Amino acid sequence: DVKVTQSSRYLVKRTGEKVFLECVQDMDHENMFWYRQDPGLGLRLIYFSYDVKMKEKGDIPEGYSVSREKKERFSLILESASTNQTSMYLCASSLFQFSYEQYFGPGTRLTVT
Amino acid sequence: GENVEQHPSTLSVQEGDSAVIKCTYSDSASNYFPWYKQELGKRPQLIIDIRSNVGEKKDQRIAVTLNKTAKHFSLHITETQPEDSAVYFCAASLVNTGNQFYFGTGTSLTVIP
How far apart are CA A44 and CA A90, in angstroms? Predict the structure, then answer.
């Protein structure tokens, strides 16, 4: 069974704080993704990575950065949190070669006050 | 980039009736179309997918059809049950190294007992 875990289910931060969201997968997947989910907007891709130290911008990268130092771990960083970054953040991973399915983590509900 | 539109945004059906959710995409090069189901408070999970060399795929009460010429694909759920109540997301992807998905905005399906 593929397991994707995220460091926190709920997080409350203040405006201007630096925020780290961590995602870990245990199935040796090459690809990892960070999405944010907002009502009526669906799942929007922030960043993805197809290999260690590789990253690609998604549709809404502004205000975010990422880090992938190890294959199993993909971190999302909010350099200076703002209230419009209050959202549900979902991490996903996929194994490119044999299956295109993306496996999602449980999500982190981030509130920025 | 790819643009995926999904309709309707909400759908209510009586138990036992059929439900149909439709998506259109803009990039004719897209070749992989998954559907995800997200129950309340849970992570999205793949329920069915279709590749561009196939026109229809079925899995028990769920089917997906693809019309490449018109660039649209649909999810069909027959004999709906209360446990089908969830948010459904379609996505389109051009399978490559990064396997980026472009998601629709979601359909909230309610099955009325």
Answer: 10
Residues of chain A contacting residue B6, judged by C-beta atoms under 8 Å apart: 42
- For residue B1, the cross-strand partners are none
Residue pLDDT, tens place only, B42-89: 999 999 999 988 899 999 999 999 999 999 999 999 999 999 999 999
Q: Taking a C-beta distance cutoff of 8 angstroms, is the pair B21, B88 a contact?
A: yes
B43 Cα to chain A: minimum distance (Å): 5
Contact B43 A56 (CB under 8 A): no
B10 touches chain A (CB under 8 A): no
Asked if A93 contacts A32 with a C-beta cutoff of 8 angstroms, the reply is: yes
- In this complex, do B103 and A100 lie within 8 Å of one another by their Cβ atoms? no
Strand partners, B50: B33
| pLDDT recorded at residue A104 | 96
Write out the DSSP string of chain A.
---EEES-SEEEE-TT--EEEEEEESS--SEEEEEEEETTTEEEEEEEESSTT--EE-S--TTEEEEEEETTEEEEEESS--GGG-EEEEEEEE-TTT--PPEE---EEEEE-
